[in-house]
Design a protein that fits this description.
Helix content: 25-40%
Protein name: Sporulation protein YunB
Strand content: 25-35%
Radius of gyration: 47 Å
Keywords: Membrane, Transmembrane, Transmembrane helix
InterPro entries: Sporulation_prot_YunB
Shape: elongated
Distance between the termini: 190 Å
Largest sheet: 4 strands, antiparallel
Order of helices and strands: EEHHHEEHEEEEEEH
Pfam families: Spore_YunB (PF09560)
Length: about 280
């Protein structure tokens, strides 16, 4: 029987009809399975990579639906704040009557008006406080978006767990009190006193949106200023009108002379010619 030596120089035995025992031990060691520690580390790395990929996929595809929701919420916040201000001003309509000073003539007709600066500032301050309170009440908004929105599919958009997201909003109101004039008839003027409320709101968390501007005008007082109606006037088509029933009849107008010096000279010549005429 031939002797077989191992790598370390020792003689190895050989069984009948089979490979040496040392070779069988080497093959058994090469097929040893991974340890639990190695399996755990590999599983952890693969799970981490898949989680990062899934997170990036969802964040990239769900951003557009979130932007749409944010735009709607921004406009809703601004509109609700302005509506609260309108409701408050309607309840305090009696205070609005003190906003305008009126001057009248002997007949009681309004000849002039002006806005009281003190009342103007008071009303503006009240409206700003109301709008700010409404905006502060909606600073934190929680929206739940189905994860199926990330797949951009009409079928899967409503499936999956809903991701809770918190929107942080910020806003600033601006209030102006002004007047607007409109023609209300012949020599009559309708003056509207209004409050213009502008609310600027934006979402800055989790991402910044473009500021949304919502502007509303609240009429708070109407004043009709009437003047004397002239005897003759013209309608919108340029036709002469009158209040004495003689429609279309315009009295003759004495036009001024374009050359008063020449007129005076001609008048003097006529007077001298009359004085020089001999008596019969």
């Amino acid at each position: 029987m031939a002797h077989i030596y191992d790598k370390d120089g020792t003689a190895g035995s050989q069984t009948k009809g089979g490979p040496p025992l040392s070779n069988r031990r080497f093959r058994a060691q090469s097929k040893k399975p991974f340890s639990k520690r190695s399996i755990f580390l590999i599983t952890l790395i693969v799970s981490f990579v898949l989680t990062i990929q899934t997170f990036l996929f969802i964040e990239h595809n769900i951003r557009e639906p979130l932007m749409d929701v944010a735009r709607i919420r921004v406009k809703q916040i601004a509109t609700d704040a302005i509506n609260q201000a309108i409701a408050n001003q309607v309840a305090n309509s009696a205070e609005m009557e003190e906003l305008v000073d009126r001057w009248t003539n002997e007949s009681g007709d309004i000849t002039g008006l002006s806005l009281k600066y003190g009342e103007h500032m008071k009303i503006s301050s009240q409206i700003v406080d109301i709008v700010n309170g409404a905006l502060d009440a909606n600073v934190h908004l929680v929206e739940r978006i189905p994860i199926g929105q990330a797949f951009d599919s009409a079928i899967l958009s409503s499936f999956g767990p809903k991701i809770p997201l918190t929107f942080e909003s910020a806003g600033a109101p601006q209030v102006d009190v002004g007047t607007r004039r409109e023609d209300a008839g012949i020599n009559m003027l309708l003056i509207t006193v209004f409050v213009r409320i502008t609310a600027e709101v934006m979402i800055y968390i989790p991402f910044a949106t473009e500021p949304e501007l919502v502007t509303t005008e609240i009429p708070i007082s109407y004043i009709l200023v009437k003047g004397d109606v002239p005897m003759y006037y013209f309608d919108a088509n340029g036709n002469p009108m009158g209040n004495d029933g003689a429609a279309g009849m315009v009295p003759p107008l004495a036009l001024p002379n374009a050359n008063p010096a020449g007129a005076a000279a001609s008048a003097g010549e006529e007077a001298s010619s009359v004085s020089e005429t001999p008596e019969p």
